[in-house]
């Protein structure tokens, strides 16, 4: 692990949270800051990787040296991931993707009518991570997912890893001020090979470096 071990490797990282338009001014979103994804990009750059960062609605400055693609909705994130993942040695889905989106985007701003508000019908979004593992661009491409769990972290994580078909699943323990929007993160990284790596509470950069250690092992 460490400086240079990702030299010549191309990695694609998604970060932030998607926004699903309701009308021209409103959206369904989430509280993801993008900091974990950016930490992954910055640490991969420091280890010599060529980095594409697909950034959904973050307020963070572009990391020097990364190719940054800014996206808004899940549909845009999905297109960018499919375009960029083909040539990637590793793909990390750190973005918080909306599970549902409004079935239609109202072309004009929705107005009060005095009566009961119209319900917003939702449809399920495609699971981008699942699409990426099913359509793996080449043998040996390492695909990493993220999950946030409040309870039975390892048990739920194992089931999700199997369902998503990824090589590594970074399972965040959420609640108690951890994860979303905070500087620190605590996680267990589960491997499709049955491995389990505990990562103590610490900066998101440290977690990112541990994830790249595990990715690098699987690339070589
Ligand atoms: O199923 P869940 O949302 O917990 O899975 C989280 C993981 O799946 C994250 O890596 C996230 O980026 C990815 N995901 C996705 N497309 C979705 C939902 C989640 O790629 N529609």
UniProtKB/TrEMBL annotation:
Its cofactor is FMN; Mg(2+). GO terms for cellular component: phosphopantothenoylcysteine decarboxylase complex. Residues 11-220 are annotated as: Phosphopantothenate--cysteine ligase. The keyword Ligase applies. One of its GO terms (biological process) is pantothenate catabolic process. Keywords: Decarboxylase, Flavoprotein, FMN, Ligase, Lyase, Magnesium, Metal-binding, Multifunctional enzyme. One of its GO terms (molecular function) is FMN binding. Pathway: Cofactor biosynthesis; coenzyme A biosynthesis; CoA from (R)-pantothenate: step 3/5; Cofactor biosynthesis; coenzyme A biosynthesis; CoA from (R)-pantothenate: step 2/5. Its EC number is 4.1.1.36, 6.3.2.5. Catalyzes two sequential steps in the biosynthesis of coenzyme A. In the first step cysteine is conjugated to 4'-phosphopantothenate to form 4-phosphopantothenoylcysteine. In the second step the latter compound is decarboxylated to form 4'-phosphopantotheine. In the C-terminal section; belongs to the PPC synthetase family. In the N-terminal section; belongs to the HFCD (homo-oligomeric flavin containing Cys decarboxylase) superfamily. This is Coenzyme A biosynthesis bifunctional protein CoaBC. The chain holds residues 184 to 403 of 403 of the full protein.
